[in-house]
């Protein structure tokens, strides 16, 4: 079955606060600007002694006309850990693990992040100011950035739990010949309703829910035994939540308290 889970979240936020102090555990080693594509490639290095599950980068762009653009990029890949738990024991596990590894950013490893910029870039500054570790601890000199990372993870857990409850309710109706399609429609309605409202906090991950809707449509269209396939889907999803949930409650161990 086709997999459509959101494996990693890369989110951009506008920022107007003072530039955060860089951390020493994960650093921007260098960057390269391609004026043809207006893309900056950041080379990120894990200089710590622990596995990393996500980080936040504060960016300052200065342009030839004098204007300055401050924003942040959050990269969170605990979704990979959740996904790897969900495909455990399946026929695709070996192939997927070969592609993704164990889903962690290991000590000494490097990663690239791509940042789109406007034409006329004159100067570019980027610092990593939030780091989340696989042991559920974190470091931060940007408290707002850390809170956004935590909020994102809590919202992903809550969204997945909500979707599972909708699916189980559809399965509980013995007269529903296609509970996967029923659940997909109800989850899509939740997405539509949420997007039509104003929100001051992140309490729903629509990208995660869209992935669930796509999975349910696959089950509805291609499974011979739709109820059995849907029951297996929920069981795997709940296993994934068990993996993800501890990473949503990060303990801050360094940086301003």
Structure, briefly:
The protein contains 6 helices and 9 strands. The protein is of the alpha+beta class and 257 residues long. It has one domain (9-254).
Helices and strands, with pairings:
Layout: E1 9-14, E2 26-34, E3 39-46, E4 52-63, E5 68-76, H1 78-86, H2 93-100, E6 110-116, E7 121-133, E8 137-140, H3 143-171, H4 179-195, H5 206-222, H6 226-244, E9 251-254
Parallel strand pairs: 8-9
Antiparallel strand pairs: 1-5, 2-3, 3-6, 4-5, 4-7, 7-8
Helix pairs in contact: 1-6, 3-4, 3-5, 3-6, 4-5
Description:
It contains 6 helices and 9 strands, in the order E-E-E-E-E-H-H-E-E-E-H-H-H-H-E. With 257 residues, it is an alpha+beta fold. The protein has one domain (9-254). The strands form 2 sheets. The chain has a 6-stranded mixed sheet, with helices on one face. Strands 2-3-6 form a 3-stranded antiparallel sheet, with no helix packed on it. The longest helix has 29 residues, at 143-171. It is globular and about 65 Å long. Mean pLDDT is 90; it is low at 1-7.
Measure the end-to-end span: 46 Å
Helix/strand-derived category reads alpha+beta
Percent helix, as a range, is 25-40%
- Count every beta strand, where a strand is a DSSP E run of 2 or more residues: 9
Which labels suit this protein?
alpha+beta; disordered N terminus; three-stranded antiparallel beta sheet; 257 residues
